[in-house]
Design a protein that fits this description.
Length: about 450
């Protein structure tokens, strides 16, 4: 099967030119000006950007959390991702206490297999790692799961102590693996939460007010220091504020392999959202919480200077009805997380490129290429080049859309961006050469996505 995309403006992390793209058997085979080649399907991309499919390296489909589970499953969540121009996700398998790493991965393979609309991979949330498990961790890296998430937050659930973090960083580092860190001092935060509840402070806004930026900055500082002692790289997930960013910047200035991602919610939403009337603030209960608005400019600065390398979503949706409601009388019982996988690419185009904060090339780098390099998928994913998978988005840079729960495709009853009008619309999406989104319609089927074995980070 040959597909030819004609007349588009191809934009990668480094290129920007007009050319045609020929796709054969799911892979880009020829790129050139005015290709004189017959194809079964010809797509006219005149006036459109032709960009690599987005890579969202931080999603939680079907994640069990706080007595419920994330409302998007691996089908609805990956289909919504495709609608928004994302063609690869890296989700998180969870090792619960007492389980082997292999059991955890098997459980998550069983959840996702045959369901996804786009390609996917897993990081492995590691909650226990004694010395005798290190060979298993090495084997898992060799088999293509090359990154792990550890938590300094959520005592009694996911939190691991510093010894375990050091052990995991050393073990992963020896094999080229990468530890992704949820960096917040959850032990101190829990004490602050106890005090707030004892004082009768139960509204959603207290989720934010009990998680100070210092708790995140301390976590980031400690994660980087432990990584330095373990002689390993570290990747800070969902970095939310200037205080934490300062720690990453200082480490990078010292030449350390410290990396970080931020998410659209920290760039476009703020603490003010928690002040919305009634229980509305629950929509934004996520961890780390939204911060004071002035942090946004600092995060954009970090994205510009490459102290932040990646934009993910941390997509972890819970419906207001029956899920967020679990914490109506106690903010600490509101399931943590918010939806976002569908709008990351157009939101960053609008807020970054249209609003003159980043270049078009940097937009592609932040939403696709950098994650591919960080997580061992490049150049198969993350670019448009001969030999790369034909994961391609045809993007209208001029058309506008208004985000709403009434029209989005995520399985959740609200949008954190309700009513926001943005410039930039995903017109067509190809996943390994197959058209999966066309004219606002999903053309694929559950199970089209493949599990991706990954290599190691090529960013260092
Ligand atoms: O609130 C969040 N971020 N929920 C998902 C779990 C996590 O910590 O990433
Ligand atoms: Zn986290
Ligand atoms: Zn997360």
């Amino acid at each position: 099967m040959k597909t030819l995309i004609r007349n588009g403006r191809i934009v990668t992390a480094v290129d920007d030119y007009k050319a045609d793209v020929l796709i054969e058997d799911g892979v880009v085979s020829v790129i050139g000006a005015r290709l004189d080649i017959e194809a079964e399907r010809v797509i006219d991309a005149e006036g459109k950007l032709v960009i690599p499919g987005g890579i969202d390296p931080h999603t939680h489909m079907e994640l069990p959390f706080g007595g419920t589970q994330a409302s998007d499953d691996f089908f609805t969540g990956t289909r919504a991702a495709a609608y928004g121009g994302t063609t690869t996700i890296i989700d998180f398998a969870v090792q619960y206490k007492g389980e082997s790493l292999t059991e955890a991965l098997d459980n998550w393979h069983a959840k996702a297999e045959g369901k996804t609309a786009i390609d996917y991979s897993f990081h492995l949330i590691t909650t226990e790692l004694e010395d005798d498990r290190v060979p298993e961790l090495h084997r898992i890296i060799d088999e293509g799961v090359t990154s792990f998430k550890m938590f300094m937050a959520y005592p009694g659930v996911f939190l691991v102590d510093d010894a375990t973090i050091f052990r995991a960083m050393s073990a992963a580092g020896e094999r080229g693996g990468l530890i992704c860190m949820h960096a917040e001092n959850g032990v101190v935060i829990n004490e602050i939460i106890k005090r707030a509840l004892a004082a009768g402070r139960t509204a959603p806004k207290y989720h934010a007010l009990t998680r100070p930026t210092r708790a995140e900055a301390e976590g980031v500082h400690r994660a980087i220091a432990i990584a330095e002692m373990a002689e390993a790289p570290v990747y800070i997930v969902h970095l939310s504020c200037a205080d934490a960013l300062e720690q990453v910047r200082a480490a990078r200035d010292r030449g350390l392999p410290a990396f970080a991602e931020t998410c659209p919610q920290y760039l476009f939403l703020s603490y003010d959202n928690y002040e919305e009337p009634g229980f509305e603030g629950a929509k934004y209960v996520m961890t780390p919480p939204l911060r004071e608005k002035w942090n946004q400019a600092e995060l954009w600065k970090g994205l510009k200077t490459d102290d932040l390398q990646v934009i993910s979503t941390d997509h972890c949706p819970f419906c207001m009805k029956e899920q967020k409601e679990l914490g109506r009388d106690d903010f600490s019982k509101i399931p943590n997380g918010a939806p976002g996988v569908e709008h990351r690419v157009p939101l960053i185009y609008n807020g970054g490129v249209v609003e003159n904060k980043i270049s078009l090339n940097r937009f592609v780098e932040l939403t696709s290429t950098a994650a591919a390099k960080m997580f061992g998928l490049f150049p198969r994913k993350g670019t448009i080049a001969v030999g790369s998978d034909a994961d391609i988005v045809i993007f209208d840079p001029e058309r506008e859309q208004t985000i709403s729960a009434a029209t989005h495709h995520m399985n959740v009853d609200y949008s954190a961006y309700e009513g926001k009008t943005i410039r930039g619309v995903v017109e067509m999406v190809l996943s390994r050469g197959r058209v999966v989104i066309e004219n606002g319609e999903y053309k694929g089927k559950a199970g089209d996505g493949r599990f991706l074995k990954r290599g190691t980070c090529v960013t260092m």
